[in-house]
Amino acid sequence: MTAEPDTRPLRLEIGARAADVVVIRMALRAWLSARGVPAADTEEIILGVDEVVANCVEHAYRDLPPGAVHLTARLRPAEGSIRITVADDGHWREPVAPHQVHGISIGGRGLTILRAVCHHHTITRGTPDAPGTVVTADFTRAFTR
Known about the structure:
Keywords: Kinase, Serine/threonine-protein kinase, Transferase. This protein is an alpha+beta fold. It is built from 3 helices and 7 strands; from the N terminus they run E-H-H-E-E-E-E-H-E-E.
């Protein structure tokens, strides 16, 4: 008899500071491991989520006092996926092309990386009256092996 998967969600809130991003990486890795997600899939999920969180840290609160980054991860057995939502209360910034620093391309790849590792994603942008951005990503590879 197979045990039912642990479907309790992971909910985290960190400060939008680069030094705090490691908290999300560590907690998400532990949460995925506890649900039996293979290590290679875990690393891809963390890569995609890390890019989204880094975008929040770098862009959402530019010209604003640092705010929070919220993460929720949910196992969705019926859909065969893991859904991860990352939200901030800052302001949306249009993605920019990578810029060159000493001949090396820097930045502008976060959403491209997310698209490469997740099955589907949505971005909900706030308004001047109701700021904030919500990125929701569904990861299915971990369930197709």
